[in-house]
C-alpha cells in the first residue's frame, strides 16, 4: 500500500470517532474480540436473525496453505433473498455485490476490525433510485449486526 495513502488513513482515523472508520465505501468498526471470536459472534447473530450464512473464508489459512503469511483475516458471506431481491429489482447490477460480506481482520497494530459495504456506497455505485426504504433497512441491519459482533 502506498505510504502516503497509509499516512492519510492514519490521519483520517484520528479525526473520526474511535469506534467507526470508513473508507472507499467500507464501514469498519473496531472489535474488542479476536478475528475468530468476532466472526463466530457475527455468524451466530446472523443465523439467529434468519440470515443465511453461505460461507466463512479464512484467508489466513489460505495464505498458509501456499506458505505465505497473513495476519488474521476472515470473510463471512451472508444474505437473505427477502431483502436482496428487492434491491436487485431496483438495480440488477447490485447483484455483483450480493450476497453481503463482512470482512474481519487484524491490522498491523493488532487491532481487530469488522468492515462491510456501506449501502449508500452501493446506491451510488449502481445508480439505485427509488429504493431508499430498502437501503435504509439494510443499513440498519448491517449496523446492528456489526455493532453486536464487535462488542
- Overall mean pLDDT stands at 89
Q: Indicate the low-confidence ranges by residue numbers.
A: 3-20
In DSSP terms (H or I, runs of 4 or more residues), the helix count works out at 6
Number of strands: 6
Largest sheet: 6 strands, antiparallel
Query: Radius of gyration from the CA trace?
Result: 16 Å
Just give the CATH class: Alpha Beta
| Structural class label | alpha+beta
CATH fold node name: TATA-Binding Protein
Give the strand line-up of the largest sheet.
Answer: 1-2-6-5-4-3
Q: How much strand?
A: 15-25%
Task: Describe the protein's architecture and organization.
The chain is an alpha+beta fold and 151 residues long. It has one domain: TT1751-like domain (TATA-Binding Protein, 2-Layer Sandwich). Helices cover 46% and strands 25% of the residues. A six-stranded antiparallel β-sheet has the order 1-2-6-5-4-3, with helices on both faces. A hairpin with a 2-residue loop joins strand 1 and strand 2. The protein is globular and about 45 Å long. The model is unreliable at 3-20 (pLDDT under 50).
Structure described in brief:
46% of the residues lie in helices and 25% in strands. The longest helix is centred in the last third of the chain and has 19 residues, at 132-150. The protein has 151 residues and is an alpha+beta fold.
